[in-house]
């Protein structure tokens, strides 16, 4: 799949996911909604992997990497779904926009290197933006404090998972990595459902079912494959930059479809966060050009000239 197409598709899927999560949580309790979503995705993914990549799925030490990938599903997803009951979908997307900052912090801890002044300023801008968005709401007690914290913890787990996978010496096909993560996450979330008290809702709307199926196919299976495909091609920081665009699209979708409030606090906080993301962005598109060159003809004179130019400026 072309890299740019995968990038755009993932932006669209991640932008619509917060609203779909909110719709799915209208009738299903958080653990049950996650369990249904991941189970439906696994029912489709497992047969495909067993036919196409059977040997890869049972490769030695593969499950260690599947466990890293599973962190982005469990417990990250139950935390997100629990908070979705209290938060507008656009706000969830804004909270998830801190993923690049978490990625930078995890990379800092992982590599043991200090943060640059530029990254520290970017982190302060993002933190200021979050305070501006949530301070008025938390002050009047409209939203429990744990709700935004749960989304931030979910984003941290996803960032940690991404960094761990980019530093792993073994590379798996995206479908295999997604399926391995699902096989570990599905039993864990069903245990949570059973221990939390399983209760099937008396009625379920068509919108809730449609959102759950959409999340299973698009939000879990397709998005995971695209995410792991991009991680295998680009750096974790480059992939996490998708969250620069998704909050804006998610805010517009929430305002348009659910009439969610777009207050000056929310817009001002979004500006602060996007400013921090701009500072954090390594505007280096050499990896993109290099990827497309490798896909082209090896003997092309033009490709050779472009590759030589990129090498000079690395």
UniProtKB/TrEMBL annotation:
Keywords: Membrane, Transmembrane, Transmembrane helix. It is found in: Membrane. Its main location: membrane. It is a multi-pass membrane protein. It comes from the Bacteria. The chain crosses the membrane at residues 28-53, 65-84, 90-108, 120-138, 144-163, 175-196, 208-232, 239-257, 263-285. Residues 5-134, 146-280 form the EamA domain. The keyword Nucleotide-binding does not apply. This is DMT family transporter. It comes from Cellvibrio polysaccharolyticus.
